[in-house]
Amino acid sequence: MVKLVLKVELYDNKVKTKAMKAVSGLSGVESVSVDMKDLKMTIIGEADPVTVVGKLRKLCHVEIVSVGPAKEEKKEEAKKEEKKGGEEKKKDPKEEMADLIKAYEQYYNQTRQPYPYHYYYRVVEEDPNSCVII
To answer: Transmembrane segments in this chain: where (predicted)?
Structure first.
């Protein structure tokens, strides 16, 4: 389980309901809660943070505040899993967060390429159908 905290610029209840509907429709999302006072959205589940933010970007401005494990009472099961896979090395949560932020920035910057401007002009002498009033 992953707990994802986002800072969202929700200015209206209509946008809030659209955002909650968009996020709750993603696979792996267990619960969604919004704090309108602090403008924060908390998502708990197995959803990918990049896809969640990508969905919300279509509705409002979004910033990732934190990504971390959801606090659960399944600590005993986690200990059993660690004993079974004792050789595996787990990354520090700060390093995982840094990796997610780097991946998100790369994804976001790829989609935000500036478009070149094309200017077209016509010379009056070359276009016989043009009309010039003198």
So the answer is: none
Residue 11 pLDDT greater than 60, yes or no: yes
By the 10 Å C-beta count (0-12 exposed, 13-18 middle, 19+ buried), 30 is classed as: middle
User: Which residues touch 99 (CB under 8 Å, ≥6 apart)?
Assistant: 91
Listed in sequence order, the residues at least 6 apart from 23 whose beta carbon sits closer than 8 Å to its beta carbon are: 29, 32, 41, 43, 47, 52, 55, 56
Residue 29, domain member (yes or no):
yes
CATH number for the domain harbouring residue 37: 3.30.70.100
Could you tell me if 100 and 67 are in contact, meaning their C-beta atoms sit under 8 angstroms apart?
Answer: yes
Question: CA 27, CA 45: separation in Å to the nearest integer?
Answer: 9
Look at the chain and report how many structural domains it folds into. Answer: 1
- Asked if the structure places residue 13 within a domain, the reply is yes
> Residue 15 belongs to what domain range?
2-69
Summarised one tens digit per residue, pLDDT across range 53-81 is: 999 999 889 999 999 888 764 555 555 55
**Closest listed residue to residue 3, CA positions, set 35, 23, 27, 32:** 32
Instruction: Flag whether pLDDT at 33 surpasses 90.
Output: yes
